[in-house]
Amino acid sequence: xxxxxxxxxxxxxxxxxxxxxxxxxxxxxxxxxxxxxxxxxxxxxxxxxxxxxxxxxxxxxxxxxxxxxxxxxxxxxxxxxxxxxxxxxxxxxxxxxxxxxxxxxxxxxxxxxxxxxxxxxxxxxxxxxxxxxxxxxxxxxxxxxxxxxxxxxxxxxxxxxxxxxxxxxxxxxxxxxxxxxxxxxxxxxxxxxxxxxxxxxxxxxxxxxxxxxxxxxxxxxxxxxxxxxxxxxxxxxxxxxxxxxxxxxxxxxxxxxxxxxxxxxxxxxxxxxxxxxxxxxxxxxxxxx
Amino acid sequence: xxxxxxxxxxxxxxxxxxxxxxxxxxxxxxxxxxxxxxxxxxxxxxxxxxxxxxxxxxxxxxxxxxxxxxxxxxxxxxxxxxxxxxxxxxxxxxxxxxxxxxxxxxxxxxxxxxxxxxxxxxxxxxxxxxxxxxxxxxxxxxxxxxxxxxxxxxxxxxxxxxxxxxxxxxxxxxxxxxxxxxxxxxxxxxxxxxxxxxxxxxxxxxxxxxxxxxxxxxxxxxxxxxxxxxxxx
Lengths: 289, 233
What we know:
heterodimer, A: 289 residues, ABC transporter involved in vitamin B12 uptake, BtuC, two-stranded antiparallel sheet, 74% helix, B: 233 residues, alpha/beta, Rossmann fold, 6-stranded mixed β-sheet
């Protein structure tokens, strides 16, 4: 029993870290720009596909793919923000959601056109293989790496936001965009930079998922964006700390559900979200408005 | 002329708030914009700052047209702004609130952290306190200090005396005098005539979005008919 529980916790933590990588970008973009970006899951998907392409067709190693793939997606993120999203900030939220949802459909179809409509199995990555023995059962080393990378990203994000100049500007602008502008923050440029950085986080999650997911499909972004939205809402929209804790909780809960109550695994996630929202409508770490 | 506002019309949605407002501030002056609640004082300052851009008219800062420019551009040209609700960044410490204004402005001059702390010693004790935890009076000090950190040529202060006890208002007059001595031009919007009389050289009276009267503060103070018509609540 203990063996199973530990395995499930480890599996949950690694799933949670992928959700966290996507939710962190989503949360950062919402916190600063005030936009709920449906297309964020698409950046995760594109990160995976670009990383896969570098890996397969350029003969590069996985780590180079992990650097180049998300950078390619950043260019797409830049175009989305600079030439489309920028024009809907001042209009009602439903229009912003419609625009970002349109990008979900566009990117899904672009992936089908470029990479084909079927699923893709990433090549086996021998260098990343191997497993360790945890209480008599094998656990992939790569999953442990993901469990380590997630908190490292969280720590780096915290350091960046609390200790750097850009972080100060982000904190100021996310609490009061207008006043930030009145002291000299070039808000449009800040929005672009934050959006591109958030895009990079999502795409990094996608790149890291390549050896993990087994099968890549054009719809892989939708699954993770739903989980990332749940995590962001549970943690409190705009709160990175909340997104991190939320991702851990949802990751572990989903793993427990899949292992012990497979019929109800999604139900458990939603019931938790409903319970938390009834108790704290602003989420675990959100600020009541 | 440092600031020349000519015939500006500003709207909030379909509401025509400023209807041809014109005013001018000479370099080195301290000028008051007086009027009752909701007559357009705040909107005038916001229009100058670029936060609520006018639909027509002209705003010149040292002969340079700034009407319709984004607020960050106006700020970098040397206009400091303290809104009536202060809007101190809650997640930033006192020091961070000051530093961010200095660095973003890219302007240098007399004002730096030490000089602002000299002006408001209390802010020195609160260096690491987050904006969220400051009292109303402390936020006001920080609001003025933050506007100064950009080494502005002109500062716009919205309701600086509002909510302050008479003794504190006396201190504020002294502080504004020190700021003025350093060559900063001040345009402030306030309802407190007594305070404006002591702090300002000239005044404009605004009513229903239109400038109704202007003159030396001493003359406005002595004109009972004007006070009764436009300022007494």
